[in-house]
């Protein structure tokens, strides 16, 4: 069973940077997709960025040019480098992973707060 552990969230002023990490455990196989979603209070969970096993990365329009997703395949770990942070980036960020068998897993979430 795959477990996802996120880290790196916290409080940052507008314009600052944070790096989120998500480490997957519980499988010896390379995961198919790994990425990040976020959810603000009272809002739908939305895709932030996702990378496929082939290296294709999709970003939400709202974060293009500011966020960078990277993947360490041997470690089944993904990172989200967040720059030029805005108050509207404030949300709980959830790591997501999919297996080649079609299973879907979520981390517990890490809070990112952007405020002056």
Structure in words:
- The model has no long low-confidence stretch (mean pLDDT 94).
- The relative contact order is 0.33.
- Strands 2, 4, 5, 6, 9, 10 and 11 form a 7-stranded mixed sheet that branches.
- The chain is globular and about 40 Å long.
- The protein has strands spanning 3-7, 10-12, 18-25, 33-39, 46-52, 57-59, 67-72, 77-82, 91-98, 104-106, 110-114.
- It is mainly β.
- It contains no helices and 11 strands.
- Strand 5 (46-52) and strand 6 (57-59) form a beta hairpin.
Concise synopsis of the structure shown:
With 116 residues, the protein is mostly beta strands. The protein has strands spanning 3-7, 10-12, 18-25, 33-39, 46-52, 57-59, 67-72, 77-82, 91-98, 104-106, 110-114.
Shape: globular
E-strand count: 11
The overall pLDDT, averaged over residues, is 94
Parts with pLDDT < 50 across at least 5 consecutive residues? none
Relevant terms:
single chain; 116 residues; mainly beta; seven-stranded mixed sheet; four-stranded antiparallel sheet; 0% helix; globular
Q: Helix and strand layout, with pairings?
A:
Blueprint: E1 3-7, E2 10-12, E3 18-25, E4 33-39, E5 46-52, E6 57-59, E7 67-72, E8 77-82, E9 91-98, E10 104-106, E11 110-114
């Amino acid at each position: 069973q795959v477990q996802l552990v996120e880290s790196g969230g916290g409080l940052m002023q507008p314009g600052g940077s944070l790096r989120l990490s998500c480490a997957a455990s519980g499988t010896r196989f390379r995961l198919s997709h790994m990425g990040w979603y976020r959810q603000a209070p009272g809002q739908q969970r939305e895709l932030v960025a996702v990378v496929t096993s082939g290296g294709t990365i999709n970003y939400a329009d709202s974060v293009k040019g500011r966020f960078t997703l990277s993947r360490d395949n041997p470690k089944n770990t993904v990172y989200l480098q967040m720059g030029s942070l805005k108050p509207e980036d404030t949300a709980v960020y959830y790591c997501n992973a999919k297996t080649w068998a079609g299973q879907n897993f979520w981390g517990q979430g890490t809070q990112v707060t952007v405020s002056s």
